[in-house]
Amino acid sequence: MKRLVRHLCSTLADNRSCVLATVGSQSGSTPRIAGTKMIVHEGGSIFGTIGGGLVEATAIREAASCLLQKKSAHKRFDLSNSEAAVSDMICGGTMDLYLEYIAPSSENMAVFQQLEKELHAGRRVILVSSINGEQPRFFVDHKGRVNREDLPSAVASLCRQTAAILSGAACVDCEGEQYLLSSFATGGHLVLVGAGHVAACTAEAAARVGFQVTVMDDREEFANKERFPQATTIQLLSTFAGCLDGLDIDSDTYVVIVTRGHLHDMEVLEQTLQTRAGYIGMIGSRRKRNTIYTQLLDKGVTEAQLGQVRCPIGMAIEADTPEEIAVSIVGELIYQRATGRRAWHLA
């Protein structure tokens, strides 16, 4: 997503218009999920993909019309009908495609430059665009703040409410206007508390699929750049007490607890449960988990809080080695990232 926004900013800086194609609401089986984006330039060249085939070809054709007329458009696809069948696109679902005409104005440049800045900092942003193009674009940041003060209160309130539960894209109606809300999500911030063998493998795998990685440990021989070359930040701790203090932990933060001991795990888990982390995972057996949970319940932690924790951590793939365990953990992180705030349904 960062590369796409960077490319869009570069296009505007070159004084060129473009069309941002966004997969909106979708149901059933479709080529790409809601929120997937692609940029279409004059002449039909593209950056990114929304799945290829009929959908992408139609998007490129419709985008040419948008660029010519300097207007945005909305296209609905039924991928279960005869038109899809003859195009080898029998997905069996429906999807809405929004084509936003974006002119190289100073106002648009400011919005997308700020969007790039937020993404570079690892923060999720919801871009809000008027469907008919009559209202300026604005965005809702990761803390629910709207970056425009002149919006009608009803519009600002509805956008905040929708942004709080949005993981892809959605269209809302308010005061006679339609707005497209589109999530520009980062790869996510992975906080690895513990720097042992599993952490080293997990950091490598997570970085490869786009996570920013922070590693924490109280052992200098483990928490160092040689062992974690992919990490953005490495913190050498004097103690695990208060180790999360000062971190901006929100729903795009994934905390994985893999310390070297039961007591450290419990100490870190108790801290993590006081945060807004979107994912909390702790390594260990069910027996270890139950022991820690019992102790935390005695300290006032609730069953609902413990229900947020994935322990034993990782997808059930019979992982055994540190490398395999890392794959199972990162698979779970990818799933959480893709599904956002939707309920877990993995075994």
Features:
XdhC family protein; 10 helices; XdhC_CoxI; five-stranded antiparallel sheet; 347 residues; NAD(P)-bd_dom_sf; 2 domains; elongated; Rossmann fold; disordered C terminus; MoCofactor_Util/Proc; 34% helix; six-stranded parallel sheet; 23% strand; alpha/beta
Provide a descriptive summary of the structure in words.
Helix 1 packs antiparallel against helix 4, helix 6 packs across helix 10 and helix 7 packs across helix 8 (286-298). The chain has helices at 2-13, 53-69, 82-85, 106-120, 153-163, 197-208, 262-272, 286-298, 303-306, 322-339; strands at residues 18-27, 37-40, 46-48, 73-78, 94-102, 125-130, 138-140, 169-174, 177-184, 189-193, 212-217, 233-236, 253-257, 279-282, 309-310. The longest helix has 18 residues, at 322-339. The model is unreliable at 28-32, 85-90 and 341-347 (pLDDT under 50). The chain has 347 residues and is of the alpha/beta class. Residues 190-333 form the XdhC Rossmann domain. This is XdhC family protein. Residues 12-78 form the XdhC- CoxI domain.
